[in-house]
Design goal:
Helix content is about 45%, strand content about 15%. The N and C termini lie far apart (about 35 Å). It binds zinc ion.
Length: about 160
């Protein structure tokens, strides 16, 4: 078990997205356009999703979008459990080739949890696309941001 539980804080979606894309640290050149858009409009072009959970493994903090309070308990708890898995993964220093491998475990546990509560799978409950997850798990993406994009639980904005 980890030495200590992570801090859990509510963070507005815009700020979370800002962190997600590494805008709060030294910005990767490829991130600068995104950061600029975020700063000016609070939105990212072609990004119709909203981050609801994020684990910052440098600071050991779980960020939750305040909107999560409007979800039912099983869905809400499943998101927290997903982020807790990341906390345990980094606390245990488990080896990984890419962040996608860590996501696969986190989504698997989240899926089993939500189904154990009599709900449907995460694809249905969280409106996740199987293709989206397949791409994440495949280790095909470059991990260019300080907090990788894969670290988010996403819901469509109009949900
Ligand atoms: Zn994750």
């Amino acid at each position: 078990m980890p030495e200590s539980p992570p801090e859990i804080v509510y963070t507005e979606a815009r700020e979370m997205k800002y962190m997600l894309y590494g805008c709060n640290s030294k910005s990767h050149p490829r991130a600068s356009q995104i950061c600029k858009e975020l700063k000016e409009t609070g939105e990212i072009t072609n990004d119709n999703t909203s981050t609801i959970g994020l684990y910052d493994h440098d600071r050991k903090v779980i960020h939750l979008n305040p909107i999560i309070r409007t979800y039912d308990k099983p869905v809400r708890d499943s998101v927290i459990i997903h982020e807790l898995v990341h906390h345990m993964q980094f606390s245990a220093d488990i080896p990984y080739q890419c962040f996608g491998q860590l996501e696969e475990t986190a989504y698997d546990i989240q899926d089993r949890y939500i189904k154990s509560k009599g709900r449907k799978d995460i694809f249905t409950e969280l409106h996740l696309s199987p293709l989206y997850l397949f791409i994440i798990f495949s280790c095909g993406r470059d991990d260019i941001f300080s907090v990788p994009e894969e670290y988010e639980n996403e819901l469509p904005k109009n949900n």
